[in-house]
Amino acid sequence: MTELVDPEDPAAGLAAVVALRRLADRLEDSQVERAMRAGWSWSEVAEVLGVTRQAVHKKHARRLVAAGVALRRR
User: Fold this and answer.
1) DSSP class of residue 8?
2) CB within 8 A of 68, min separation 6: which ones?
3) Are 15 and 47 in contact (CB under 8 A)?
4) Is the dihedral of CA 48, 50, 74, 63 positive or negative?
């Protein structure tokens, strides 16, 4: 069972924020990889994430290449 964070405890609340950020990062990584393996372009991924193509490329390209994902140029 998941424990709820005590809303009166800033340390617990901040720890929850950190955990959520880590979870969101892992989810983004896996979904970007899935999209790129499916043939999406950097621009398509960026549009859905609401960021620039350059931002997505900078954040994910090295990891995707290391994972053996064939990347499109544009």
Assistant:
1) T
2) none
3) no
4) negative
Domain membership of residue 31 (yes or no) is: no
Q: Is 6 within a domain?
A: no
Q: Where are the alpha helices (DSSP H) in the chain?
A: 10-37, 42-49, 53-66
C-alpha to C-alpha distance for 68 and 71, rounded to whole angstroms = 9
Tokens of 30: 């896996």
Tens digits of residue pLDDT in 14-36: 999 999 999 999 999 999 999 99
- Domain membership of residue 17 (yes or no) is no
For residue 69, give the nearest of 48, 23, 38 by alpha carbon.
38
